[in-house]
Amino acid sequence: MSRTLGRRAGTWVAGASLALGVGIVSSRLGAGVWAWLGAGAAGGGLWALFATFRRTSEVDSEGNAVGSAEGSVLVPSSAPRDNRPADGEVGIVPVLGVIAGEGPLAPEFRPFEALGPLAEEPPARGFRVWGRRFPPLLGRVAIVSVFVGRDGQPWSDDELVGAHRALKRAGAWIEREAIRWQVPVNVDLADTYFSSVEEDADREVAIFRPDDWGGMGLPDPDAEARILGILGRTAAALGFADPVDLIGRIGRRIEADQIVWLLHVRRAGKSIALPSDATGIPGVAVAVCYAQEEDFEAPMSGPPFADPITFVHELMHLFGANDKYDQPRSHVPHGTVSERDIMVLGVEALSRLAVEPLTAVEIGWASSPTERPTGPVRPLRSAADGGIRGTSPAGKKKRPRRPR
C-alpha cells in the first residue's frame, strides 16, 4: 500500500475510533465498563490522528520523504548542528554546484549564472524549536543576497562592494551581541549572490491619514504583494520556476542551520521583513531592504545607501523580534528595553545599539526578560576593516533616518 493511501487509511481509522469512542461515552450505555471502553477508543483515535498527521508532515504530496533528495519541504531538527561559540568574524559559505561569473567582488563573491552539475542534491537543513512561531537565531546563519535593479538601472560595481561591506558589518555586530549573550551564532555570507534588473512604471498607491498611524510612518498596503511579485519575476529571470524553487534548491546547496534571504531593491521604499506566514508560501521568508528609506516605493532621489542597521533590524524580524519604537516603556518590564535596542532604533550608530533582554527572548537567546548578558563586550570593527576590496566604503556615509 502506498504511503499516501496509508495516510488516508490511518486518518479514516483514527476518525472512526474517535467517533466510536465519543458515541459510546455519550450514549446511555456510557456507564461502567462501557465508559472505559469508549474513553479508550477516543484516546486511541486521538493518538492515531496525531501519529498520522505527524507522518504526513514528513512526506510531500508525492509521498517522498521530506528533506530527501526527492522532497523539497524542510524537516527541521530540534537543535542547531553548528554549536560553535561566536567568534566575531563573518565567514564565507559556499553555494554548492552553481556556475558563477566574475564581478567586482571576486574571488570572495561571484554573481550567479546557472545551476551546475551536482552528484546528489543534499537534503534541506534547518531547525526549529517546538512552540516557537519563528526559528531561533542560533547556529550557523548564512545570508544570501538578491540584488534587484529597478527603473532599468542595475546595481553598480561600487554599490555591490558597499552592500557587501555593510553586510559584513551587520554580521559582525550580530556575532558581537551573541558573544555578550553567550549563545552559539556564526554568521556567514554566501559566496554567490543573485542579481536582476526590472523596468518600472509609476503606479497608484493607497494613502492613509498620517494621524491614524502616529509616528510609525504610513503603511503601504501593497507592499507584500509587490515584494512577492518582484521575487517571482527575479526567480524566473534566474531560471527558476518560482520563489519556492529558487529558495528551496539554493537553500539545499548551502550548509547552514539557518538561511536568511535579503532582497536588496535599488529603489526608495520602506524596508520590510516577510516571514513565511506573511508570504503565505511555506519555506519562503525574506527581508527586503530598500536602497533608500521612504514610506512608499518610488524612484530614488540620490545614490543608494547600504545600511547595516537596516540589514540587522529586518533580519531580526525573521527570527521573531518585534518592533519596539512604537511601544511605551511603561508597557514592558523595567530594564528590558531602552533606546539602544536594535528594535527601537533610538540610536543612529550601530556600534551603540544592542540586543536587550526582551529582544533576546524573542530571538531565542534568553528564556526570560530577567536574564542579562554575561559575556564580554567587544568593539565593533569599522566598515573599512571588512576585508572586501573596492572603492565604496558604506561607513563613510551618514545613515539616513528610517521613517517610522
Features:
globular, 404 residues, 29% helix, 14% strand, 9 strands, alpha/beta, 8 helices, nine-stranded mixed β-sheet
Q: What report would you give on this structure?
A:
The structure is a single chain. The protein is an alpha/beta fold. The protein has two domains: 3-56, no CATH class; 91-396, no CATH class. The chain has helices at 3-26, 33-56, 157-181, 223-237, 243-251, 276-279, 308-318, 357-362; strands spanning 91-93, 98-100, 110-115, 139-149, 185-190, 192-197, 258-269, 272-274, 286-293. The protein is globular.
> Which regions are unreliable across 5 or more consecutive residues at pLDDT < 50?
1-30, 45-75, 209-216, 383-387, 389-401
Task: Specify the overall morphology.
Answer: globular
Helix- and strand-based class?
alpha/beta
On the 0 to 100 scale, the average pLDDT is: 77
Number of domains: 2
- The portion of residues forming beta strands comes to 5-15%
Distance between the termini: 57 Å
Q: What is the radius of gyration?
A: 24 Å
**String of helices and strands:** HHEEEEHEEHHEEHEHH
Largest sheet: 9 strands, mixed
Helical segment tally?
8
Helix content: 25-40%
How many DSSP E strands?
Answer: 9
